[in-house]
Write a structure and sequence with these properties.
binds 2-oxoglutaric acid; three-stranded antiparallel β-sheet; about 280 residues; Jelly Rolls; alpha+beta
C-alpha cells in the first residue's frame, strides 16, 4: 500500500493518461498557475440546445435567486440531478471527469449541480471564492465548472476571474472585491466549459446584450468534504441508469456515512478504497 500523498497540483499516474489522451495538458498548467481554464467545444450543439431548453424549464418552475441574482434580473434552480437525464449526462463529460480528478482527486464528489438564467440588464454579482467554508489548504478542495449555453463575452455578462488569486486561499476583502484588480472575462463559445478552482476570486459582468445568458454550474469536491446538495433520495433505480461514476460522485462507494450499527457486520473494502482514492 502506498501511504504518501502526491504533491499538490501534480498530475498523478491515475489521471495522467486521460489528461494526455484528451489534450488537457495546457488546461492543467493554467489551473495550477492561474486558477482557471476554459475547455472549448466540450459539448455538442445538439446537447447544448436540449440542455438550454431543460434549464429554461426548471428555472421557470423554481424561479430561484441563487448566484446572487436580483429579483427581476434572472432566475435559478439547484439540486438538479434527477430532474432531467441531461443533467447526469453533463456530469459525465470525459474532459470534465479528467479535470475533476486532477483538481479533487480520485472518487471526487458532486457537491452541487445548479442552473442560472440572467436576463438582459442583469447586474453583476460580488467577487468571491467558492470554498468559503474550507480553511486554507494546498490541496484544492473543490471547484466549479460552468457550461456555457450561449456565447460568452463581457457584454454577455460572462464570468470574471482574477488569474493567480487562488494562491491567497481566502475570500477577497471588501476593498479588493470592489477594485477587482487584474480581472479578465471568461470569453468562449456555447458548448465550452470554464473551470475556476475553489479559492479563485470570481464574479461576473453585468449583461448588456439583449436576451438571456443560460448556464449550468457544476461544483465538485474532494471525497473528504461534505457536498452542498443531498442526493440521498436517489436510489438504485436512478443509479442503474448511469455508469458507476455517478454513484461514486454521490459518495456511494466510500465508507463515509455508512458506518452504522449493522449488528457487527462491516464491509471494510470501501474503507481502503477511500484511502487509495484520496491519494490518487
Ligand atoms: O454566474 C457566474 O458567472 C458565476 C457564478 C458563480 O459564482 C459560481 O458558479 O460559482
Amino acid at each position: 500500500m502506498q501511504y504518501s500523498y502526491p504533491e499538490p497540483w501534480s498530475i498523478t499516474p491515475s489521471v495522467a493518461p486521460a489528461i494526455a489522451g484528451l489534450g488537457l495538458e495546457q488546461n492543467v498548467v493554467q489551473l495550477r498557475d492561474e486558477g482557471y481554464t476554459i475547455v472549448e467545444n466540450a459539448y455538442s450543439p445538439d446537447f447544448c440546445a436540449r440542455l438550454r431548453e431543460a434549464i429554461l424549464r426548471v428555472t421557470r418552475e423554481e424561479g430561484g435567486h441563487y448566484f446572487d441574482i436580483k429579483p427581476g434580473e434572472g432566475i435559478s434552480a439547484y439540486h438538479l440531478l434527477g430532474a432531467d437525464d441531461l443533467f447526469a449526462e453533463a456530469l459525465l463529460n470525459p474532459k470534465l471527469s479528467a479535470l475533476s480528478e486532477y483538481l479533487c482527486g480520485g472518487d471526487y464528489l458532486l457537491s452541487q449541480i445548479a442552473a442560472s438564467v440572467r436576463f438582459s440588464g442583469a447586474s453583476a454579482m460580488g467577487l468571491h471564492v467558492d470554498a468559503q467554508w474550507v480553511p486554507p489548504t494546498d490541496y484544492n478542495p473543490l471547484f466549479t465548472a460552468c457550461l456555457a449555453l450561449d456565447d460568452l463575452t463581457e457584454a454577455a455578462g460572462t464570468t470574471k476571474v482574477i488569474p493567480g488569486s487562488h494562491k491567497f486561499m481566502r475570500n477577497p476583502d471588501d476593498a479588493e472585491a470592489a477594485a477587482a484588480v487584474g480581472a479578465v472575462p471568461i470569453a468562449c463559445k456555447a458548448g465550452s466549459f470554464a473551470i475556476w478552482t475553489g479559492y479563485s476570486w470570481h464574479s461576473n459582468y453585468p449583461r448588456t446584450l439583449p436576451g438571456e445568458r443560460v448556464m449550468l454550474h457544476m461544483t465538485f469536491c474532494r471525497l473528504a468534504y461534505k457536498p452542498a446538495e443531498d442526493y440521498s433520495a436517489l436510489g438504485d433505480e436512478f443509479l442503474a441508469k448511469w455508469p458507476p461514476a455517478i454513484a461514486t460522485m454521490l459518495g456511494r462507494n466510500s465508507w463515509l456515512g455508512v458506518a452504522g450499527r449493522n449488528g457487527g457486520a462491516c464491509d471494510m473494502t470501501q474503507y481502503s478504497r477511500m484511502w487509495s482514492a484520496a491519494r490518487s
